[in-house]
Amino acid sequence: MKRKSILEKMKNHQPKVIGQKNLNKYSLLLPLIEKEGELHLLFEVRSLNMRRQPGEICFPGGKVDKEDQAAKDAAVREAKEELGISDLDIQNVYPFDYMVSPFGMMVTTYVGFLNCEENLLKPNPAEVEEVFTVPLSFFKNNEPDIHYVNFEVKPDEGFPFDLIPNGREYEWTTRQAEEYFYHYEGRVIWGLTARVLHAFIENLE
After folding, report:
1. Those residues with Cβ within 8 angstroms of residue 96's Cβ, 6 or more apart along the chain or in another chain
2. Rounded CA gap, 152 and 165, in Å?
């Protein structure tokens, strides 16, 4: 390959996460709704009949399908399906940040405003046990509890230690991840939802 062709490729290249082809892509919406003269964030409690993470608290969202032209379309589509609302009920949807989880997920996040009353929502019982809101001010005034999860490296049996310096004595880099826990009126918001929430609140400040 010649220098000119490489330069052309680099000029037109859009940076992306290396290895993202192998990641499962998800998209979620942080829905803001006005309630009693104050902005609230709306959360879902996952249906108790769900195979994965039943009863956990989350934002509307799900996997990006092939039919979705962009991750934003997936976030809006999932919010409509899960909350029983229409396009007219969601306004001003803007991209926030994205994250790559250690479990092979790439999550794109969006912030949007719900243009409807909470009592007009019709949550899909197959996916949503209930919805509730929390004043945005609560998160700005209350720091989460922080606990830690340690990730260790454990090579598969048959790993070619003879091909790397120091072989079986190689010093792998381990990682400690923060887990955030928000407590609100007997509910616990944690995991990926709390991680995104914490980043959003930090961004507002």
Report:
1. 30, 109, 110, 111, 196, 199, 200, 203
2. 19
